[in-house]
Here is the input.
Amino acid sequence: MVDTQVSLCGIPLSNPLIPASGTFGYGQEFAQLYDIDILGTFSFKGTTAQPRFGNPTPRIAETPGGMLNSVGLQNPGVDAVIAKELPALAEIFHKPVMANVCGSTVEEYAAVAERLSACPQVGWLEVNISCPNVHAGGLAFGTTVQGAAQVTREVKKAAGDKPVIMKLSPNVTDITEIARACAGEGADGLSLINTLMGMRLDLRKRKPILANLTGGLSGGAVFPVAVRMVWQVYEAVRLPIVGMGGVSSVRDVIEMMLAGATAVGIGAANLTDPYICKDILEELPQVMEELGISSLKEIIGGAHHG
Amino acid sequence: MKEGLFILRENIPLTGSVWQMDLEGDTSAITAPGQFVNVRLDGKFLRRPISVCDVEGDRLRLVYKAVGEGTRAMAGYEPGKKLDLLTGLGNGYDLAPAGQRPLLVGGGVGAPPLYLLCRRLVEEGKKPHVVLGFPSLEEAFYEAEFLALGATVDMWTQDGSNGKKGLVTDGMRAAEYTYVYTCGPEPMLKALWELSATSGQFSFEERMGCGFGACMGCSCKTKYGSKRICKDGPVLEKEEILW
Here is the structure.
């Protein structure tokens, strides 16, 4: 019998799997396919103070080994999330959920964090300072030490006793600087990586495919980049890491944990293979046994030791 | 929605670029004409959304245009191949408001989803009037199939190569109808929306991430707020559409 439990910022997870924000909505679509209580938790769609429609379409493009998206944080706004989505979620998910917080200003981040942290269903706040698809806020905060520090500081003040996990961008020269800045302001954890900024062109129209011109690259193609960055951040700070970026198999989950992740986000794979998390969880015990792993907790950062 | 493996039984060209694929598998999740399936292709990350042309028992027929790398590869698939499909996606057409003489307007590969709709309407004793539009006779398909269902068919070509030069809007102008069902390129939908004398249902196309409502990749604005083409559509009612 293998032990898949881990603990993220003091909250136990029955397993380390966390569908990533933006790929799992508010859980409803997937709850029609399988019992989503089998997940460690999931991070719901990035939420802003006001409703946002997001960017014009096309928002999606194929890439080798992955996809670009330029959704642009479409969400119904924090009031509707609290009034409608969270009560609906309570019917289908009976564990603490991770609330993904977005904003265009430091004040907006703090305001959304304050509202969501007061919801009993919310276990963690995941603060998105790394969305490449919005023109104000988002990535603007996540690519400078000062910006990341400022958002962390203000969100921490607003979040009460809920753990604050800062979601970092790979679109930076040195991700460890940003990680240290967040740690320095009291972040309780880090999640990485958000998508890598990319572009595809339509050869017939001789124009970018995405109406927003650029989008965020995700899918298997980014997995090695994510592993490298999780490795670097694990060496740089003593904070739990939610490792994500192209994870699409049990072996990817274990590799991400060996690199330093305490929990593992599954993103784009949910979109092309809606049963992926269920399949990974079913296969996990067997692969753990094959690899001589009796407890997942014990392999976190395992590739750094010895 | 269901995920399942389908066996390819036949894959034949209807024109230089439009193909008809017959598959066998569990079609039980397909509940309405106008729904689509999302097909996993070898070596591609994103699935390809293709509208359902016809379904009967465990047989599923897709008609698709080989237009990009993915669908061109699909055209090369041989019988016996197994394909991973998500089925039963999208809302599909609602037959209830059709009236006795519904008008079905299809432009290019917008025509295939109207086939199952037409068949169902005929089964209900309705008298569908089908208007089809293609660039040329060479690129036209399915006129005979709609006729075989017992529908009145009115086909137009932009270059007049079938002897009837014009657009589907010319067909609509000349027709008497109780309701409109349509699928085709967006400029065509808009022209029909402006011209149509009755209410109707319009099926839209958009690049999709997941195809089942999770990623917000294909959102559009409507009078009643934002909708996901893949989950709340692809069929929108005339009254809610914003251009």
In short: The CA atoms of residues 172 and 205 of chain B lie 21 Å apart. Chain B has two domains: 2-89, 96-203. The interface with chain A takes residues 1, 3, 40, 44-47, 70, 86, 206-210, 212-221, 226, 231 of chain B (CB under 8 Å).
